[in-house]
Amino acid sequence: MVFFNTKSTIILNRIIRAYTTTSNITVDALVYSNYGKPSEVLKWHSYPLPALTPETVQVKFLASPINPADVNQVQGAYPLKPPFQLLNEKDDIKYAVGGNEGVAQVIATGDKVKGIKVGDQVIMAKAGYGTWRTYATGPASDFQVLPMTDSVSNIQLATLSVNPCTAYRMLKDFVKLNKGDYVIQNGANSAVGQSVIQLAKAWGIKTINVVRNRPDIDALRNELEQLGATHVITDDELGSFETKSLIKEWGQPKLGLNCVGGKSATEMARHLSANGQYVTYGAMARAPLSLPASLLIFKNISFHGFWMSRWTDTHNMEERKIMIDELIDLMKRGHFVEPKWTQVEWKEEPVKAAVDQGIQGYGSGKQVILF
Ligand SMILES: NC(=O)c1ccc[n+]([C@@H]2O[C@H](COP(=O)([O-])OP(=O)(O)OC[C@H]3O[C@@H](n4cnc5c(N)ncnc54)[C@H](OP(=O)(O)O)[C@@H]3O)[C@@H](O)[C@H]2O)c1
């Protein structure tokens, strides 16, 4: 005979309530089963949310951006390959869910889960999670809890872990920058570039910001200056004698940040001070970076690469938390604003079109899916 006292009945009820094998929540996701042109390989897929277990949490996604790396990942041209897996026991095809970054809210936690509770806002602990979906269930270690705040928008939180963190690390980890020192960067209107401008301003560092020329260049110049850019120049001005003299007058940068490659990236390297540090973190022009030997021999410039995913893999959650807390604090105090962004409607065709457009250039800011 089985005897239940009141306490064990309560516990049993909780178990039945929380750990049923099926979930009545349907997940909608943008997935792919092989690599290729995003509009051809991405497809809409709906499946039941995996059930909660004592060790897992369930989250509801609030917003997820479309970053250049997400597009490269779907194309199969990114070194970080997502896991292809059966999302649902009825599926016979293994899928990867698109997207690497986003903010989600915890909607349920298993009884053994510690340090994360219903209502918390979380970001992904690692790249490659698959954030173009409405819900997910996973171990608590898949997520990093954000400090509670009402004054930071979902757009800021959804776009926090890749671009602001990349800017933060590159400004801190390659050379000691003192107040008044200069940094030069290309792709300065990108989300990383906007983050560099704002962090540098908050920390008293000056920036020379290189952007591609365009018909409405004054509007862009104005936008970047509003963010805190010290100087904005176009890539076709970069190699001129006048620009060389101007930069010498302002102060030669100790640090160069390159996400473009090709000719303008070479020109930018020539402006660094002797013993300067040059960090390449992207290749938007899809052209190799060629370097004159004199920069290495006579100016002793050091060239590095940076990859945020590698940093995250090689540093612990506590180190990441210190960086994230500092960024959120700057956001709360109004020193770090939302990136320029446009909303992507959460439907198959608009998201596919947005992903295809993701790396075409001259865009109108970060594309963000709001769920
Ligand atoms: N290594 C890392 O850990 C890491 C982390 C974050 C980002 N990234 C890389 O950083 C870059 C920027 O990322 P994001 O998310 O900040 O980008 P984003 O906000 O989507 O902006 C894209 C940037 O690329 C420029 N661009 C596009 N096509 C170009 C071309 N053909 N030639 C020159 N510039 C071009 C755009 O300038 P226009 O307005 O002139 O088109 C814009 O400045 C990407 O390459 C991304 O993969 C790397």
Give the structure's gist in a few sentences.
By secondary structure, the protein is an alpha/beta fold.
Molecular structure report:
This protein has helices spanning about 5-20, 40, 70-75, 155-160, 165-175, 190-200, 215-225, 240-250, 260-270, 295, 310-315, 315-330, 350-355; strands at about 25-30, 45-50, 55-65, 95, 105-110, 120-125, 135-140, 145, 180-185, 205-210, 230-235, 255-260, 275-280, 300-305, 340-345, 365-370. It has about 375 residues and is of the alpha/beta class. The protein has two domains: about 15-160 and about 340-370, Medium-chain alcohol dehydrogenases, catalytic domain (Quinone Oxidoreductase, Chain A, domain 1, Alpha-Beta Complex), CATH 3.90.180.10; about 165-310, NAD(P)-binding Rossmann-like Domain (Rossmann fold), CATH 3.40.50.720. Strands 3, 5, 6, 7, 8, 15 and 16 form a seven-stranded mixed β-sheet that branches. Strand 10, helix 7 and strand 11 form a beta-alpha-beta unit. The protein is globular, with a radius of gyration of 23 Å. NADP nicotinamide-adenine-dinucleotide phosphate binds next to helix 3, helix 5 and helix 6.
Range of helix content:
25-40%
Mean pLDDT: 92
Reported CATH architecture of the largest domain: Alpha-Beta Complex
Spans where pLDDT lies below 50 across 5 or more residues: 1-19
Bound chemical compounds: NADP nicotinamide-adenine-dinucleotide phosphate
CATH topology of the largest domain: Quinone Oxidoreductase, Chain A, domain 1
